[in-house]
């Protein structure tokens, strides 16, 4: 009985009605469900690799193989510049933020359909599902980051002037850029989820968007390759700042300025907020359409 | 004065049939323009394709009440549950829930097959609204209740379906919520498990939980819920004593509009005689739903093809497990009434025999009847196995005192008398 009494005091009256407008975001409720976030992240961690042969090894292999392909095609054949950085490090570093963004987008871009069973049976703030999916992608990022550090270490000790490659204080800013990559991926994922809940065929767009986005982001080429008067176009893409800032913080050479960084962060934030609101609008009646 | 824990006021839910997914861009633009020019009006007009799954439903539930919901498929029961669970939003009206609510719309909500039983208890528990701390406190009780202590660290994908269901229900049964919204959860599993579930629900009700219970199993409802509401085509048409609600529901439901096994027609026999039809009748009409406190008539039509045959009909009543409950022929020495045609010489023609099973005789549950026709009480002309079937529903008329499972294949009221042999001296 004691438990029940504390329950009723901590649980406010729930008022069920048709909600009007866009702003129905309830932060208090999210805080009450914090344990669910933790458990969903744990579920993703512990269930994801159980049926793959290589397990988390995929996260080591995938960027290494991609880097190899990039080095051969864009480094050797197309001979694109890499800002004076060894091509392998250049690509690996560029893909750090990008891969996190892409896996988040993949994991959240179809949130309604992939959670339809659960959403149809029980209520919890729906945003928790894509949010915890985004956080659990961090483990892939961490594995990839360690891989990158190992390769960076090898280069730093092998090359004659390798000491210049060792991380400086700027690497402490890295978490900000990881956060921005996650925000961009989640924001886009929420937009796609909301749209494909209504127009089912839009989910096929997802892989196309990721592929196209990869090439408009300076991953296989440096931003400095784009003529300066056109660079502002590239900066509309928030992933440009993520990738360039990551290189700036880890490798020390890239096009970086506080103002472009802030603009990129602003665009990512807008993307996320608008995604959350749109998602919140769709979630209220999504179940009726399944 | 306490406010009701659930209060529903004129709630309604409209579905737009064939709209989602199949919406063209042109329709979309029309919709957009109408929304811009006649703000919000588009949302309040009914269209031909609209369908109100629920409309103008109001009721309230006080803390500690156990409320049943009765209605045919499509009457709006599940929609009501979904609205109160906040799975979807009402189109109109509103409701207040004053307390923590958990909806149990399936067993094992949120279970992940790759995770162990232990992990799934925590996962499912938090999805249903508990905190990890609360689950930790109840963990041993949950595992004990499910009876799977030695398998708790095995992935649930290796569980038998019975273990899976028991663990799922165990989590649900130990929720800390004051309000439980339950839908047919008890319909799965074996008899022993079902009994365990009903006992647990009763225990929860006794603890003062409020339970909102949807089930097609009227016996479970009458057993569990003192009060019920009845929905019909999205409207609330009755709110009161469960026994009354079920009685009226069965009366209304037996209008013969739905295909039933209450009626059989065909031809089964030989050159002498054949069975042509059989049906179940109760309360004046053909029905597969029978109240436990109403008599049941089994009606047989047969044709005599060879004049002068000594024909008689008989009925075998079987329960849902196939056990023979009784067999009854209309032979003069085996009947109570005066059936002048049983074992008499029949001229050619069509005949109808009626057998009455008295009220308060069968237990609740499903029964099926084999129909036979014989000549000279020895030669079988024709048999129709499981020709008709019917369900006996518990109306609660014998449950004023006793609430638990009523064992037995039949449930007659028996004659009892008790007398004092020796009174202890005060």
Report what the structure shows.
The complex is a heterodimer of chains A (290) and B (426). Chain A is an all-alpha fold. Chain A is 66% helix and 1% strand. Chain A contains 14 helices and one strand, in the order H-E-H-H-H-H-H-H-H-H-H-H-H-H-H. Chain A starts with a helix and ends in a 7-residue tail after the last helix. Chain B is an alpha+beta fold and 426 residues long. Chain B has nine helices and 20 strands. Chain B folds into two domains: 248 residues, P-loop containing nucleotide triphosphate hydrolases (Rossmann fold, 3-Layer(aba) Sandwich); 131 residues, Distorted Sandwich (Coagulation Factor XIII, Chain A, domain 1), CATH 2.70.50. Strand 1 of chain A pairs antiparallel with strand 4 of chain B, so a sheet runs across the interface.
What is the SS-derived class of chain A? mainly alpha
Instruction: Report the uncertain regions of chain A.
Output: 1-9
Q: Strand content of the residues of chain A, in percent?
A: under 5%
Q: Specify the CATH class of the largest domain in chain B.
A: Alpha Beta
Sketch the major β-sheet of chain A.
none
Task: Please name the defining characteristics of this protein.
heterodimer; A: 290 residues; mainly alpha; B: alpha+beta; Rossmann fold; Coagulation Factor XIII, Chain A, domain 1; six-stranded mixed sheet; 9 helices; 20 strands
């Amino acid at each position: 009985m004691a438990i029940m009494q504390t329950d009723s005091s901590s649980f406010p009256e729930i008022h069920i009605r048709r909600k009007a407008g866009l702003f129905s975001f309830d932060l208090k409720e999210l805080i009450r469900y914090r344990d669910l976030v933790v458990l969903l992240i744990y579920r993703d961690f512990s269930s994801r690799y159980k049926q793959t042969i290589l397990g988390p090894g995929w996260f080591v292999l995938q960027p290494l193989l991609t880097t190899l392909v990039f080095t051969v095609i864009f480094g050797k054949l197309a001979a694109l510049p890499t800002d004076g950085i060894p091509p392998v490090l250049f690509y690996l570093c560029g893909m750090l933020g990008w891969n996190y963004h892409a896996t988040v987008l993949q994991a959240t871009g179809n949130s309604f359909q992939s959670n339809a069973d659960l959403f149809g049976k029980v209520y919890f703030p729906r945003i928790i599902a894509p949010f915890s999916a985004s956080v659990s992608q961090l483990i892939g990022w961490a594995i990839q980051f360690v891989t990158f550090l190992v390769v960076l270490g090898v280069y730093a000790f092998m090359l004659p002037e390798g000491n210049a490659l060792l991380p400086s204080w700027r690497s402490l800013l890295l978490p900000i850029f990881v956060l921005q990559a996650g925000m961009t991926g989640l924001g886009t994922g929420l937009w796609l989820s909301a749209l494909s809940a209504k127009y089912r065929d839009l989910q096929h767009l997802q892989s196309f968007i990721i592929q196209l986005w990869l090439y408009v982001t300076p991953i296989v080429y440096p931003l400095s390759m784009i003529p300066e008067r056109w660079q502002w176009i590239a900066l509309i893409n928030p992933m440009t700042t993520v990738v360039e800032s990551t290189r700036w913080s880890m490798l020390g050479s890239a096009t970086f300025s506080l103002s472009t960084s802030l603009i990129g962060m602003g665009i990512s934030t807008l993307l996320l907020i608008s995604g959350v609101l749109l998602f919140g609008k769709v979630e209220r009646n999504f179940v009726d359409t399944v | 004065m306490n406010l009701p824990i659930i209060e529903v006021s004129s709630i309604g839910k409209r579905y737009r049939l064939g709209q989602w997914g199949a919406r063209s861009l042109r329709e979309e633009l029309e919709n957009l323009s109408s929304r811009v020019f006649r703000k919000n009006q588009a949302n309040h007009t009914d269209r031909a394709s609209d369908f109100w799954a629920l409309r103008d439903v109001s009721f309230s539930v006080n803390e500690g009440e156990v409320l049943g919901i009765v209605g045919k498929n499509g009457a709006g029961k599940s929609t009501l549950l979904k609205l109160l669970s906040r799975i979807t939003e009402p189109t109109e009206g509103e409701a207040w829930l004053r307390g923590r609510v958990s909806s149990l719309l399936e067993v094992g909500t949120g279970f992940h097959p790759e995770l162990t039983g232990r992990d799934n208890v925590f996962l499912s528990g938090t999805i249903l609204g508990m905190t990890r701390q609360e689950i930790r406190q109840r963990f041993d009780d949950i595992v004990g209740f499910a009876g799977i202590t030695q398998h708790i660290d095995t992935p649930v994908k290796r569980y038998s379906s019975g273990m899976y269901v028991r663990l799922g229900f165990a989590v649900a049964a130990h929720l800390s919520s004051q309000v439980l919204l339950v839908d047919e959860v008890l319909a799965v599993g074996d008899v022993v498990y079902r009994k365990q579930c009903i006992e647990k629900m009763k225990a929860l009700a006794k603890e003062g939980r409020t339970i909102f219970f949807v089930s097609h199993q009227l016996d479970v409802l009458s057993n569990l819920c003192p009060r019920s509401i009845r929905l019909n085509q999205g409207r609330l048409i009755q709110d009161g004593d469960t026994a009354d609600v079920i009685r009226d529901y069965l009366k209304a439901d037996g209008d013969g509009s739905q295909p039933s096994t209450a009626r059989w027609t065909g031809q089964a026999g030989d050159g002498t005689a054949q069975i042509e039809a059989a049906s179940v009748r109760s309360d004046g009409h053909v029905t597969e739903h029978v109240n436990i406190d109403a008599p049941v008539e089994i009606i047989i039509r047969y044709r005599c093809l060879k004049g002068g045959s000594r024909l008689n009909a008989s009925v075998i009543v079987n329960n849902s497990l196939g056990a023979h409950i009784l067999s009854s022929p209309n032979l003069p020495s085996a009947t109570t009434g005066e059936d002048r045609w049983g074992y008499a010489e029949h001229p050619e023609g069509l005949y109808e025999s009626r057998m009455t099973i008295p009220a308060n005789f069968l237990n609740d549950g499903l029964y099926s009847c084999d129909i036979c026709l014989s000549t000279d009480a020895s030669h079988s002309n024709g048999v129709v196995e499981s020709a008709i079937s019917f369900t006996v529903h518990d109306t609660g008329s014998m449950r004023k005192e006793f609430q638990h499972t009523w064992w037995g294949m039949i449930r007659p009221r028996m004659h009892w008398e008790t007398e004092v042999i020796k009174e202890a001296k005060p």
